[in-house]
Amino acid sequence: MLRAFAIHLYSRISYLRYKMNSNCLFCKIASGQIAAKIVYQDELVTAFRDIRPVAPTHVLVIPNKHIQSINHVEADDEQILGHLFTVARRVAEMEAITENGYRTVINTGTHGGQTIFHMHMHVIGGQPMKHPMG
Length: 134
Ligand code: 5GP
Ligand code: ZN
Prior knowledge:
CATH architecture: 2-Layer Sandwich
Number of helices: 4
Distance between the termini: 43 Å
Shape: globular
Strand order of the largest sheet: 1-2-3-5-4
Helix content: 25-40%
Mean pLDDT: 92
Number of strands: 5
Order of helices and strands: HHEEEHEHE
Bound molecules: guanosine-5'-monophosphate, zinc ion
Strand content: 15-25%
């Protein structure tokens, strides 16, 4: 109950602090307008389970601020994106996949396989990853 309230509060703060893109699915998830299985949220980032998991753990970590892709990253975003990595590590710990390892992926643009144009890091684990990539 307390956790749900904290998540709600943080989503309100992030909604107020960052200009969201009203047509963006992941902005709506970060602001609480669309439901997702949120595993972690603070004022800068949100982590939630992918709707079509490809492995036992498949979590997406996104900046609450609408950043379309790596192509749109600005120097001002460095604090957010550094924090995104810290949260990816925390997610891995919560999912107990730290020791065995996991894959982190950020797809960019059409050739990169990006389908949702709000930058996100996939944290995928719980089974051995397949090779090769690409
Ligand atoms: P991309 O292909 O852009 O790197 O990754 C987008 C990811 O978002 C995909 O893995 C897809 O399954 C996931 N996704 C798409 N729509 C939704 C949704 O409505 N909710 C959640 N939780 N994940 C979604
Ligand atoms: Zn967005």
